[in-house]
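Attaching the record inline, Q. Sequence:
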Amino acid sequence: MSRTPTPTQNERYLSPDNIIVSKTDLQGRITYANREFLDIADYVEDEVLTQPHNIIRHPDMPRTIFKAAWDRLKAGNEIFAYVKNLTKGGDFYWVVAHFTPTFAADGSIVGYHSMRRAPNRPVLDEMSALYRDLCNAERSAGSRKLGLEAGSALLDARIAAHDMTLDEFIFMQIAQERAA
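Structure, as predicted:
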């Protein structure tokens, strides 16, 4: 891919009936993207295959969230997360993502799979505020490494304040969606 698009303030909305699906190899390079993925992100298949999945990463997304996701995935666990993505033209869209490892017959991880759906709007207000705080912590720490440590510490503190694990915290948000 050539360049990262400049973010706009234009939001796109995933239909509640649609599910975005993508698969990656162990390095996070896209090996499959369904029609919904391509349509909302404004790419054609040839533009995304073999590209790093982070080509759709919005700069408002804290690195802390992706570190937590990668740590879980590499350990063979699934994770849910709210993600703000970037389209080819710079617009954005929110999803609830379910990331899972893909296993070979021998139990080894051979790639990753993600299914994403439309989130509930009221939950996004809370997640946007959390992500903004995490990004501020990451940016103000002085280096990328210290920023990731600061963001992770802040996320851990926020979750601990709810007396929950990361999974419980995310599922609490999803439960709020379902109740709405």
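The helical segments are 35-41, 45-48, 63-74, 121-139, 144-161, 166-179. The first helix runs from residue 35 to 41.

More tomorrow.
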